[in-house]
Write a structure and sequence with these properties.
alpha/beta; inorganic pyrophosphatase (n-terminal core); Diaminopimelate Epimerase, Chain A, domain 1; six-stranded parallel beta sheet; six-stranded mixed beta sheet; 13 helices; 12 strands; 18% strand; binds guanosine-5'-monophosphate; binds manganese (II) ion
Length: 342
């Protein structure tokens, strides 16, 4: 049995809104990851089962290694079709905001969602949500938004109705947001949920292979290059930093998603509990932050226009690569500042 983590009044209110809604639109964050897509598509297939007219809208493209996820071909991308994305949000009588806590995380979709007249439901596991909603289900202690979707469906009394495609998507996001159950996954209930998902017929080993064993040769070579040539270690601050410029990415025929997971690798070095990965994109510099233990890496990310979880966060920089590295090195050297503030 699962603990009733989501408040009863939220379940009752949400259930009522779902019952009366006809057109439902699900929105998730920029550069959607496994949990963003898994929760959106997990909910999508479930709502289709309830005979709703459902759409999923995302700000931009997702990595190719997630394109096997059932329903991903039906997702509307704002960068590809702005009008359709905006209309789908404005036409909905119910909107779900999944896996983000701040409107800045949906970029160009922000205005359409602010103008939308449909009822709004937030389901998320990032701290301090700052979004106006009719129902707010925010649980930073939970592994993933996918786990919250599973709990929600069960609490509304629909476990039997949960289709295979929902189960597969939900498992995928739980797996990717916990690094294949290697962090944020200590709760016994995570494994109870996996047990239930397996009973729906999902093949967890196959899902693992589809996510982690389908890389291109170029991606592996880029990883080798990062580790042998680009990894800087700051032993006195127990930190590591890797950066890649546009030029370097082009040399390795970079595709979206190719650098996914690189930030986690330096944490395998003994004595390192902070890892930072910096990637120069066309319009900005994307920074990924990771930590282990109690170091609140989201506090450091806040100094770089971002945020996130205790051990996984992200941010952006609009300075040059050189200046960005300098600022990050200063942050690393001042790591105590972030520890004191917890
Ligand atoms: P990643 O490094 O995998 O892109 O992001 C890790 C986590 O950091 C995400 O799950 C998300 O919670 C958070 N995150 C990433 N980028 C940003 C950002 O630009 N702003 C905020 N607020 N959070 C971010
Ligand atoms: Mn998530």
């Amino acid at each position: 049995m699962l603990t009733k983590i989501i408040a009863e009044d939220a379940i009752v209110k949400l259930h009522k809104l779902v019952k009366t809604a006809e057109k439902i639109t699900i929105v998730t964050h920029i550069s959607p990851d496994g949990d963003a897509l898994g929760s959106s598509l997990g909910l999508y297939w479930f709502l289709l089962e309830l005979q709703k007219e459902v759409k999923v809208v995302v700000p931009n493209a997702f990595p190719g290694f997630l394109s096997w996820m059932q329903g991903s071909d039906k997702i509307i991308q704002y960068v590809e079709n702005r009008k359709l994305a905006e209309d789908t949000i404005k036409d909905a009588d119910l909107l779900f905001f999944l896996d983000f806590n701040d409107m800045s995380r949906i970029n160009g979709l922000k205005n359409a969602t602010l103008e939308a007249t449909g009822k709004k439901i937030l389901i998320d596991h990032h701290p301090h949500p700052d979004i106006y909603c009719d129902v707010k289900i925010s649980h930073p202690e939970i592994s993933s938004t996918c786990e919250l979707i599973f709990r929600l469906i069960c609490r509304m009394g629909y476990f039997q109705e949960m289709p295979f495609n929902s189960a597969e998507n939900i498992y995928t996001g739980m797996m990717t947001d916990t690094g294949n159950f290697s962090f944020n996954s200590q709760s016994k209930e995570v494994y109870f949920i996996i047990h239930e998902l397996l009973s729906k017929g999902i093949d967890k080993d196959e899902i693992y292979r589809r996510i982690y064993n389908t890389y291109s040769a170029d991606r592996m070579k880029l990883m080798g290059y990062c580790l042998s040539k680009k990894m800087k270690i700051y032993p006195e601050h127990k930190a590591a930093l890797i950066f890649l410029t546009l030029n370097e990415l082009e040399q390795f025929h970079y595709q979206i998603g190719d650098t996914e997971g690189f930030v986690n690798i330096p944490l395998q070095i003994q004595g390192i509990d902070i890892s930072i990965f910096v990637r120069q994109d066309k319009d900005k510099i994307k920074i990924s932050f990771r930590s282990t233990g109690n170091f609140p890496i989201n506090k450091m990310a806040e100094d770089f226009n971002g945020g996130g979880h205790l051990n996984a966060a992200g941010g952006d920089s609009y300075y040059s690569v050189h200046k960005t590295i300098e600022l990050l090195e200063q942050a690393i050297a001042n790591r105590e500042k972030y520890e004191i503030n917890t």
